[in-house]
Amino acid sequence: MRTIGLEGGCTCGAIRYRLAAMPYDTGWCHCRVCQRASGSAGMVFTTVPKKSYTIVQGYDLICRFQSTSFGERTFCRNCGAPLTIHVDHQPDEIDIAVGSLDEPSAVKPGFHLFVEYMPAWMSLADNLPRYPGLRPNTRGLEPGQTDPVGGVARPRAADTTRGSEIASESQANRID
């Protein structure tokens, strides 16, 4: 797999990853799950094909939790830094937490999701498109569908088991 030069990792440096494809579909998510996972008013994610996400260090430190009925997040067991989210309706893609990239300026957000959940004190100064839920043209969903299973922005109880299906699939791409 060819690398494009984008790499990233967790806050403590124990987990490192490499991307073999240029990210796309970068945007803000302001849902309550992203707010709680980040401790802020939202998170920025960018997408790559799942086969392009390679863990190069710290595979055994990756934890996961089922954050919604349709999505799973990964994070570092040591420092808690969010790394990815994988949603059922996009089985061959993975969303990378942009803040975990070594060069977060390499990608630029193009939209805001779940703006109805933004804190009242937050104002957006950009002119990016804003959506109350998911975009009506979200890959993997029916045209116009903005909520894959109901309650998209509501958190689930955490399952913090070690490893993950995502990490397991990346094991084949792991560099030791």
Describe this structure in words.
- This protein has helices at residues 32-38, 165-171; strands spanning 6-9, 16-19, 24-29, 43-49, 53-57, 62-68, 71-76, 82-87, 93-97, 112-113.
- The chain is globular.
- The strands form two sheets. It has a seven-stranded mixed β-sheet. The protein has a three-stranded antiparallel β-sheet with strand order 1-2-5.
- Residues 151-166 have low confidence and may be disordered.
- The two termini are 15 Å apart.
- The protein is mainly beta.
- Helix content is 8%, strand content 30%.
Which terms summarize this structure?
globular, 7-stranded mixed β-sheet, mainly beta, 3-stranded antiparallel β-sheet, single chain, 176 residues, 8% helix
